[in-house]
Amino acid sequence: MSVATKPVYVDDKLREVRESGRLEYRSKALPTWCPGCGYFSIVESLTGALNELGIPAKDTVVVSGIGCSSRFPFFVNTYGFHTLHGRVLPVATGVKTANPRLTVVAVGGDGDGFAIGGGHLPHAARRNVDLTYLLFDNGIYGLTKGQTSPTSPLGFRTSTSPYDNADQPLNPLLMVLSYGATWVGQAYAGRPAQLKSMIHAALQHRGFSYLHILSPCVTFDRTNRTYSNLNIQVHDLPANHDTTDLTAALREAATPAPPALGLYYQAKRPTLDDALDATIIRAGGAAGAVSATA
Ligand code: SF4
Ligand code: MG
Predict the structure, then answer these.
(1) Could you list the residue range(s) of the whole structural domain that residue 191 is in?
(2) Does 220 contact ligand 1 (Cβ within 6 A)?
(3) Is residue 126 part of a domain?
(4) pLDDT (tens digit, 9 = 90+) per residue, 78-126?
(5) Where residue 237 sits, what CATH number does that domain have?
(6) Quick check: is 174 in a domain?
């Protein structure tokens, strides 16, 4: 028996998108990513979350490193900074410290964040810089045409591992939790509603919020982190997971694949801004001097 489906008209869809307010946060430049890349879902989710929270685009800065994912600032209508390879977190820290009233979102890929930029992540996390870091993990270098990255699995075959990858992949969630991040979650580009709600929550957190986003590279990975594999593998964290329990979060992060989605951990701790204010007071300055510079 055939099921009648309601037709979807382009004009109706365009009106719905215009009226949603999301276009306020999208630039006139259309994304240059390959059709089907998971990054489309991420830009849609971030702009949707900013719109839901009513954070003005003029008070938002998106900072990126280098890579396919780091083209991101071109496609949003916020302030943006396309920085050097691996240097997204030092620059984002500087932006936030110079003007703490801004909403700062750092974005980048697994190569940018865990290879050349890997030395910066522990320090942004332990300082609890009040920003959101969206890490787009496709387990490959996409921009340079498909080489193994720090999160490529064992046995993965690429142009730089024609006899299969022999390097153990990093476990980013375990690392970031142990570095002292105060908000750690995982989402999947193929689940856009959940992704948007997690970005929404990460933006609301005061402190260093880290969202690990599993995102397929449809051009250079046809075997591993594909939509068809991830759609089967991903599942939610247990309903009774205690997000205030660091040991429970570490245990979940250390569990071998398949990957669990959701909020692993959150905690309250003074931010870098708080620490700088306290230092200024100890040195004889005025309270709130850091935020007063904004
Ligand atoms: Fe996305 Fe891969 Fe294309 Fe880069 S190469 S835009 S990561 S699909
Ligand atoms: Mg990558």
Answers:
(1) 29-292
(2) yes
(3) yes
(4) 999 999 999 999 999 999 999 999 999 999 999 999 999 999 999 999 9
(5) 3.40.50.970
(6) yes
User: Which of 66, 219, 222, 227 gets mutated to test ligand 1 (max ligand atoms within 8 A of its CB)?
Assistant: 219
Of 257 and 100, the one with more pLDDT: 100
Q: Which of ligand 1's atoms lies nearest the C-alpha of 36?
A: 8
Which ligand is closest to the CA of 112, given by its number?
Answer: 2
Token representation of residue 79: 């302030």
SS3 content of the chain, % helix, strand, coil (to 5): 40, 15, 45
Which residues 6+ apart lie within 8 Å of 8 measured at CB? none
Say which DSSP state 115 is in: I
User: Is 19 part of a structural domain of the chain?
Assistant: no
Residue 275 has pLDDT above 60, yes or no: yes
pLDDT digits (tens, 9 = 90+) for 276-292: 999 999 999 986 666 65
Q: Is 97 in the pocket of ligand 1 (CB under 6 A)?
A: no
Alpha carbon distance 289, 50 (integer Å): 28
Which ligand number lies closest to the CA of residue 219? 1
What is the crossing angle of helices 272-282 and 88-98, to 10°?
50
